[in-house]
Design goal:
2 copies of one chain form a homodimer.
Chain A lengths: L6 E2 L2 E2 L3 H14 L12 H8 L3 H13 L3 E4 L3 E4 L8 E5 L2 H4 L6 E12 L2 H7 L6 E11 L7 E7 L17 H9 L5 E10 L2 H7 L6 E10 L5 E10 L5 E7 L6
Antiparallel strand pairs in A: 1-2, 3-4, 5-12, 6-7, 7-8, 8-11, 9-10, 10-11
Helix pairs in contact in A: 1-3, 2-3
Chain A binds a DNA duplex through helix 3.
Amino acid sequence: MADLPGKVHGKVKASRYRDIAAKLQKDIRLGTYAVGNLLPTETELMASYTASRQTVREALRILIDQGLIIRRAGLGSVVIAAEPPVLFTHSVKSLGEWLRYSNETYRDVTGSRDIVADKKLAAMLKCEPGKSWFLIEAVRRSDQFAAPLGWTEIYVLRKFAGVVKRSDHGRTPVHEQVAKMYGQTTEYAQMEIFVRGMPAPIAKQLGVKAGSPALTVVRRYYGLREELFEVTITTHPEGRYTYTMDMQRSLRPRL
Amino acid sequence: MADLPGKVHGKVKASRYRDIAAKLQKDIRLGTYAVGNLLPTETELMASYTASRQTVREALRILIDQGLIIRRAGLGSVVIAAEPPVLFTHSVKSLGEWLRYSNETYRDVTGSRDIVADKKLAAMLKCEPGKSWFLIEAVRRSDQFAAPLGWTEIYVLRKFAGVVKRSDHGRTPVHEQVAKMYGQTTEYAQMEIFVRGMPAPIAKQLGVKAGSPALTVVRRYYGLREELFEVTITTHPEGRYTYTMDMQRSLRPRL
DNA sequence: TGACGGACTTTGTCCGTATAAATTGGGCAA
DNA sequence: TTGCCCAATTTATACGGACAAAGTCCGTCA
């Protein structure tokens, strides 16, 4: 959607359907067609603009791409926004890329076991207390540095426990392994970043002082029907990890 | 682009053009049409699929929307990717929404002054040492709680210093004020989150212990030609701030 | 060699038409 | 009243055709 025809040096070439789209956009922005209401039907637009159905539909397609309307057979064109809504976007190819660990990092698994969420863990994972999980604990390390980057706790549904046996287990994001082995896809994900004093058990593993500044990142992965199937909690000591995100103004290609 | 026709309960309805699109996608993924090469022309596709030009073009439009091809009059359909590139997106309406402060928070400005970036500050801002900035310092507070949420340092170019005089200064993101007053728009932005021990001067302002865990968020705003025009640094004590981000699998509407 | 021009190819735009599918609303029956 | 089916409306899909605009290719000419 980046570089479609109709653009010349940033300017938009004139054409029948673009003119119609521009007029409709204006009418939507000015409230002639309010949000929630219907646009005129294709037949009406054909009459009022003296254009063919093809041309009218091409114009309406622009409004769809801009997120201004949705269209339904039997219903019509519903105005859902007065302005193109999205201005800035941040995109990632996969949720693995989301975490900006480079390829030189890996998980050094220290152990794994079944665990039942008590009230405190349930709050952290955002699941019901009493839910069963399979826990994988690991130290995140880098090829470059001797000091560990952080401590990782990975909670997956018990039925996915088999991922620990994979040969690429330490270097591939677990949610990708789950997808490959069990076909569980991630439909929705959530991340939380906050600061806390380093918990004593983790401090011991990482060789830092308990209570020292620690950055904790919680990632929750949801499948179909909002089912939470994996949560990872990583905790980093001061100076070992920075989360970075870039955002770009999204250019709307057509018109 | 969320909910176009052709989808029923997540499944895709069969239709001529979707079949053609699916076949072409497969051929692209398998390398029959390699990246950089051309797809068959519309006329050729009409012949090989026994479909009208309209139908073929509808199929190709799907590939365009998926970012697999670009089309040019006189050239053809160039394959630019073997797989739909973007899988997960996080979108925000404005960069103000980016920072998840609700409307109940505001900046309590404690002072402002000119400042020249020394080596240390330049590294933090990612600018050249010696660059001049206008610094606004403020405590971020909430209507709900007595304790301050954090400490904010806002660095803007000196020519934008006038924003402090605005009546809405404390409740509107500064980059929006700059946009309104001076027409400076944000084309690109970057965020960094890391943990550090609370610096003594800030600790004093916030009434917490120096060296206690602190979450620092740096936001850099760039205009046209990569010009850095604003940087904000906010520092939060433990328990006062959590950064949250939601990501949704981007559903490609057609097909 | 390099610039220019024209023929050719390919997509862009626009028109006409027909049938299918989805949605709504009203009438009818339980 | 409630629920179901039918008819009307509206968009979705698909066919046909025509000319314009943009890019490529190649031969000609300086």
